[in-house]
Amino acid sequence: MAEKVPSRPRRGRPRQAEVARLAGVSQTTVSLVLGGNKQGIALHEDTRARVLAAARELGYVPDPAARRLAAARNNLLGVFSFTATFPTAVEHSYYPFLVGVEQEAAAQGYDLVLFTGSSSGGAQAHEPGALDRVRLADGCLFLGRHVPDDQLGKLVADGYPAVHIGRRDEPQGLAWVGADYVAASAHVVRHLTELGHTRLLFVREDDDALASTDRERGFRAGLARYGHQDRADDRAVVVRTSRPEADITPEWVRTRLDEGVTAFVTEETDSGAVWRALQAAVTEAGLDVPGDLSLALLGSPPADLATAQSPTGFDVPRADLGAAAVRLLIAQMSGQEHEEPLVACAFRPGPTTGPPPGRAPRQDPEAGG
């Protein structure tokens, strides 16, 4: 049972999220109870009583507009993308998500409504009230690294069914599906240390996107478990850059090699800016990969840089995540119990990693098959 959170004075209309916190239940359960449980879902009488008591204590009154929308089910699922253009091109990194979404929606008997999001010429996602239009659909899936938390939080607080593909922390109560970047990133570090690398450097974009943070957590966890870097050495194992093209130069790479770094690890992002800059700098410096240094990418390269042989890293199961998001959204809409799945990423061996110069791969007694 979730911990019961005491109510606090607030301004404005109490929301279902507050009723859920006070009653110690999920927001889906609150919506189910206060909506009269028209779906006929089995609920314990004590649960129903706690929800009603919490609603009375807070003075909750249903939003009539939201109630009208809730009654007007039309089997439409929304998809809102926070990208410059809607990701319908096959080479776009979000496209496989949409394949999984479309296939699962069709299998479940739903149609899709695509919202322009941040597309040029469309309603900008960060403008006040821009997300209100998704209420045309019964529920909505959201894609993107950077989301306006205030607007998305209002949808969640109003009880509108919403699922984000990849997001986990903000706003409170938002359902999500995500990939296990922590475990996958640690696996890549393990692979590098088994090859004999003792000085690894993780280079990432300078932002606070959760996908980037998870990858860094996994990188550090991998070093702690498998690495042999001197813990007394205060040289950074993680470098952030807001200007990869300017900061990652041939001279920068050579300086890191002189410091003892033999493997560079970076992340997949929408732009792939760090991976692009690393590859360009290494090529311009005349260095051999993996003879002089190893490169690993936590995710997949941008489509225009993809080759027949992909770099060492891992693959994100995008289509599976899209399908899982649809199932989670439908469960939320129907008042069923649901959970946020964390999907494993498959390790991808590649030609961009090998033993450091002059060293052979080490044998790890913990290494499995």
From TrEMBL:
PROSITE patterns: HTH_LACI_2 (PS50932). Gene3D superfamilies: 3.40.50.2300, lambda repressor-like DNA-binding domains. Residues 14-71 form the HTH lacI-type domain. The keyword Repressor applies. It comes from the Bacteria. The keyword Transcription regulation applies. Keywords: DNA-binding, Repressor, Transcription, Transcription regulation. Residues 346-369 are annotated as: Disordered. InterPro entries: HTH_LacI, LacI/GalR-like_sensor, Lambda_DNA-bd_dom_sf, Peripla_BP_I. This is LacI family transcriptional regulator. It comes from Streptomyces tendae.
